[in-house]
Amino acid sequence: MIDEDWAARAGRTALPTCHHIDGAGEPGGGATFKVVSPRDGRVLTEVADAGQAEVDRAVAAARRAFDHGDWPRLAPADRGRTLLRLAGLLEERRADLALAISLEMGKPIKDAYDIELRAAISTFRWYGQLADKLTGESPHVAPDALALVTREPAGVAGAVVPWNFPLTIASWKIAPALAAGCTVVLKPSERSPLSALMLAGLATEAGLPPGVLNVVTGDGPIAGRALGLHPDVDVLAFTGSTAVGRHFLRYSADSNLKRVWLELGGKSPNIILPDAPDLDRAAATAAWGIFFNQGEMCTAPSRLLVHSSIAERVTEAIVARARELRVGDPLDPVTEMGPLAGEAHLGRVLDHVRSGVEDGARLLTGGSRRQPGSYLEPTVFDRVTPGMRLAREEIFGPVLSVLTFDDLDEAVELANATEYGLAAGLWTADLSTAHKVARALRAGTVWVNCYEEGDLTVPFGGMKQSGNGRDKSTYALEKYTELKTTWIQL
Asked: Which value, in Å, is the radius of gyration of the alpha carbons in the chain?
C-alpha cells in the first residue's frame, strides 16, 4: 500500500453525487439521500436518489445500447481490450477508490487498497483476457446436416450488489456480463454508492460506449424493486440477504420471468479436527476469518466446530487474538478492524450478542460497542448449542460461535444443520478424511487447511438458501449468455 495521509486525502477528494446513465452523470429528479460514514457518523455527501423514472431511463439506455449499439456486435477481442483499459484505470485511481470504500462502509484502508482493489482490478483483467477465448460447439450429427451451438449475450443485465465488498462484487457481476456482450444497469447499496459511481466514470473513460454500463443509486424497496420488475431487464444478478433474494424471485414472476441469479447469506462452519497439521495456524486463521472485514462477509466462518479434545486450546488462542486486534479508525493504516456499516447494522449485531447471553452461551471476550462511530469489539462465545440464534442466524458481524463435537459424523451433522450452504472449512492432515468430509458438506466452496483462498479460475456461489449460479471463473458467463442451436440441412 502507498504511504499516504489518508485523512488529509479524504478532505481534498471530490466525491460523485449523480447517477451514471447513458455515459454521463445525471442528477435525476432532485431527490437525494445522505451517505453517512460509519467511521464517525459524518455525512460525506448527498447522492441522487433513484425512483422509477431514473431506473426507466437507465434501462432504456442499456436497451438501446444492446439492441442498436456497437458493444454486443464488437469483436470479442475489442471488448476485451476495453475491459483491460478499465483495469488499468482502476489501478491508476486505486488510492481514490480505496479511500471511497473506506469512508463509505468502514473497511480498513489497508484492506480496501490491498485486497478489495486488487480483486476488482484482477477481475476486469481476467475477463478482458478471456473475452475472445470463448468458443461454441459443432456436435456430430447426421451426415446431411450441420449443427452449431453458440453462446449469445443475454441482453440487458441488472446487477444489485451489497455494501460489504462494493467493488469486488460489482466487478464479479459487471466484468463477465460485459465480456459476454451484455449491457448493464448496476444498483449499488445505498450505503456504498460512491465507489460504484467512480467505477462507472472510469468505464466511460476507458471507452465503454454510452448506455453499456449505467449506475443508479437509491434504496432497495424503490430502485431495486423497479429494476427487478422491469420488463426490459433480461437477467438479474443479486448478492445480498436471503430475504431480499426472495423478493427478486417474486419480481421475476410478476414481470417477464427474467432469469434471477442469487448469491445470498451464509452461516459457514469451520471444522477443526485433532489431527489438524498446525493447530496454531488453524486457530489464527479462524480468528482472521471471522474478524476480517468486521465479520461482514457472507462466507465468514461464524460457526467454529472444534473437537472437544482441543477446544480449550483453540478457543484460548482465538480469544487472545481477538483481544490484541487493533480496532479503530479505518483511515489509519495500522487498523485491522474498522467500524460496522452504520448504527442500524451495529444495533442488529448487538441484538444477536444479547440473545447469545440470554440463551446461555458464554461470552468470552468482546460484545461491547466503542464510540464514537459504529465500532464493536471482536466477540467470541463458547458453550453454544445448535438451537441458539447464535448458531442458526447470519449475524454479519465480528461474532464467533464455538461448538464442540466428539466424532466426525457429529461434526458433519452440525456443519450441515443450517439452511445455508455457501462455504465451509476443514482442518485435517488425513487425505481420506479431507475428501470424505468435503463431499459430505453441503456447501458451494470447501476450504481444506485454509480459509478464503482461491482465485478467478474457480467458481463461487452457494447451495440451499445461499443461492444459485456462480460468480468468478468461466462459469459466471452462463448467467449472462443464452445457448442457441442452429441446425442447417445440407
From this structure: 23
Task: Delineate the domains of the chain, giving CATH numbers in brackets.
Answer: 6-264 (3.40.605.10), 269-453 (3.40.309.10)
Alpha-carbon distance 200 to 219, whole Å?
18
Residues 109-127 pLDDT 10s: 999 999 999 999 999 999 9
Q: Is the pLDDT of residue 332 over 90?
A: yes
Q: What's the number of CA atoms in the CB half-sphere (13 Å) around residue 442?
A: 16
* Active-site residue, 152 included: no
- Could you tell me which of 349, 403, 351, 347 has the C-alpha nearest to residue 378? 349
Top pLDDT among 156 and 30 is at 156
- % the chain with pLDDT above 70: 100
Annotated active-site residue 263? The verdict is yes
Give me the catalytic one of 26, 54, 263, 478.
263
In this structure, what DSSP letter does residue 114 have? Answer: I
What is the C-alpha separation between 350 and 376, in angstroms, rounded? Answer: 8
> Alpha-carbon distance 18 to 47, whole Å?
6
Given 26, 54, 296, 298, the catalytic residue: 298
CA 369/CA 365 separation, integer angstroms: 12
Q: What is the DSSP letter of 368?
A: -
* Position 1 pLDDT exceeds 80: no
For residue 193 the three cell numbers come to: 454508492
d(CA 327, CA 348): 19
Identity (one letter) of the amino acid at 226? A
Residues 6+ apart with CB under 8 A from 118: none
